[in-house]
Amino acid sequence: MDSVATTLFYLQAESFLIVYTSFGFSTATASLSQVPIAIGCLLGLLPRVYDSHILKLRLQQGKPLAPEDKLFGFALGAPTLAVSLWWFAWTIPPLVHAPWIASMLSLVPAGFALNDITFTLQGYLADSYTIYAASAFAGGLLARSLLIAGVLPFARHMYTGISANVATSIVAGVATLFCISPWVLLKHGEAIRKASPFAQYSFGVYVENQVEDDMNTAAVVMET
After folding, report:
1. pTM for the full predicted model
2. Which tops the pLDDT comparison, 43 or 212?
3. Which of 209, 33, 26 has the alpha carbon at shortest distance from 107?
4. What is the full DSSP assignment across 88-100?
5. What interhelical angle do 180-194 and 164-178 show, nearest 10?
6. Largest separation between any pair of C-alpha atoms in the chain
């Protein structure tokens, strides 16, 4: 799923040079659009506070964390990505004449969403497949590379052929449909994992080896 989010972001990024040179930026200064993305990535520290709260709660209850307990970042990031793309789509030329800063600001939540979706889903793969995590990462990386390679060659033609506003709106529409993904994983993630013998076995091994450690940690937390 992070393959879809990454591809959508890459499609948007293909428009940056076209959009910001139309604002009067040079080819070099158009790359400043990466700055708000970097700021957004740093904001990914904030959901980790909630993750820490969930971890502490589970430790106090003496219960191991399920992989679905760590999907808050995905549930937050998916709609944030959709909103940021719609925001960007309708604050840029040629159909809208807003100040350049309006579209730049939309890149802050875009950076946050991309970082948090990737961070959360990579962790979900690791928690779901544990001893087989390397294979899961390899499969995910292959899917992402193939999807990006298949889509990006057409990106520039899309942005120049039907205007950046319409092209980004199409990307934003796909991102909006993508918002159902966190709900599917939160509601049916356990059943999906159990359908995979590799995930079921590896998570069983994880629980067997981790519960005692979690109980010991919980005792320390309760004492403090």
Report:
1. 0.84
2. 43
3. 33
4. HHTSSTTT----H
5. 40
6. 64
Q: In whole angstroms, how far apart are CA 93 and each of 100, 108, 162, 174?
A: 9, 19, 12, 21
Dist. CA 40–CA 42, nearest whole Å: 5
Sign of the four-CA dihedral 26, 27, 33, 34: negative
**Residue in 126, 147, 12 with CA at minimum distance from that of residue 70:** 126
At 123 the pLDDT is: 87
Q: Which residue segments constitute the domains of the chain, with CATH numbers given? A: 2-223 (1.20.1250)
Q: What is the mean pLDDT of the chain?
A: 85
Q: How far is CA 190 from CA 67, 112, 138, 185, in A?
A: 8, 27, 22, 8
Neighbours of 61 (CB within 10 A): 10
Residues 198, 4, 25: CA angle, nearest 5 degrees: 145
